[in-house]
Write a structure and sequence with these properties.
Order of helices and strands: HHHHHHHHHHHHH
Keywords: Repeat, Signal, TPR repeat
Number of strands: 0
Structural class: mainly alpha
Strand content: under 5%
Helix content: over 70%
CATH architecture of one domain: Alpha Horseshoe
CATH class of one domain: Mainly Alpha
InterPro entries: O-mannosyl-transferase_TMTC (IPR052346), TPR-like_helical_dom_sf (IPR011990), TPR_rpt (IPR019734)
Largest sheet: none
Shape: elongated
Radius of gyration: 24 Å
Length: about 250
């Protein structure tokens, strides 16, 4: 009798747990949250939880989960990198720099993300913190890892312009504009080769063309922007080409 009673009790218990787990699996985000709460010391579950919160723009919760991930697996650069990205999105550039610079020294990130993304994001934080020479160095390292990196080329153009203009030499400015236009042109070619039309690159090309007083190139850039964004207004064109704009889009 005791054996039969035990079986009778256990079967409903296991069935209930299985049913609840099926409900968890019905939505990956729910599964990541449930597992993250249940396993706070697991690097994997905390990383998944952090990314889930990051996608939901729950920044504080995301950082907390990713810090737990970093504590559980201090050799992985992934949580450091993602925290750095979050701090960039929040405008906390000094904090972002600390996490991202640490991420560049870690092992294993390349298993899940291209290393150039980490060095690129570190450059973004460095530039925002006024460390323009180091930012240029890290952008060049990112492009050494992957020369066909449109985002890196676009941002190298803006950084080049910023560095040379800050030095105040007229000759250097003209050279900087030429080099920046070359980098943006490369970014455009690489994007279009992947069937991607990025209006930001054409906005920067328009800005650089005006800076160089190249009206033919400026007209071409305006025409391309009107093609990509049919409802763009002249005022929008004016605003969009008022500066060289960095691109920061966290990699998936």
């Amino acid at each position: 009798l005791s054996l039969g009673f035990t079986v009778f009790i256990l079967i409903p218990v296991f069935s209930t747990r299985t049913f609840l787990r099926v409900l968890d699996w019905s939505d990956p985000d729910v599964l990541f949250v449930v597992d993250g709460v249940r396993q706070p010391a697991s690097a994997k579950t905390q990383f998944n939880l952090g990314i889930t919160y990051m996608q939901q723009q729950k920044w504080d919760e995301a950082v907390s989960a990713l810090v737990r991930c970093a504590l559980a697996d201090p050799m992985s650069g992934l949580p450091y990198w993602r925290i750095g990205q979050i701090e960039i999105l929040r405008g906390n550039f000094p904090v972002a720099e600390q996490w991202l610079m640490e991420a560049t020294t870690k092992f294993g990130a390349s298993l899940m993300v291209k290393d150039e993304e980490i060095f690129h994001d570190a450059a973004v934080a460095l530039y925002q913190n006024g460390k323009v020479d180091m930012a240029m160095e890290y952008l060049h390292m990112a492009l050494t890892m992957n020369p066909d990196f449109p985002k890196g080329l676009n941002n190298l153009a803006c950084a080049t312009l910023g560095v040379e203009y800050s030095q105040g030499e007229e000759r250097g400015r003209y050279d900087a504009v030429d080099r920046a236009a070359h980098y943006v042109s490369q970014a455009i070619q690489l994007s279009e080769a992947s069937s991607i039309q990025n209006p930001l690159y054409w906005q920067n090309m328009l800005f650089l063309a005006k800076l160089a007083n190249n009206m033919k190139l400026a007209k071409s850039a305006e025409s391309k922007l009107s093609e990509i964004i049919p409802d763009i207004t002249p005022n929008d064109l004016l605003k969009s080409s008022a500066d060289c704009t960095w691109e920061f889009v966290p990699a998936a």
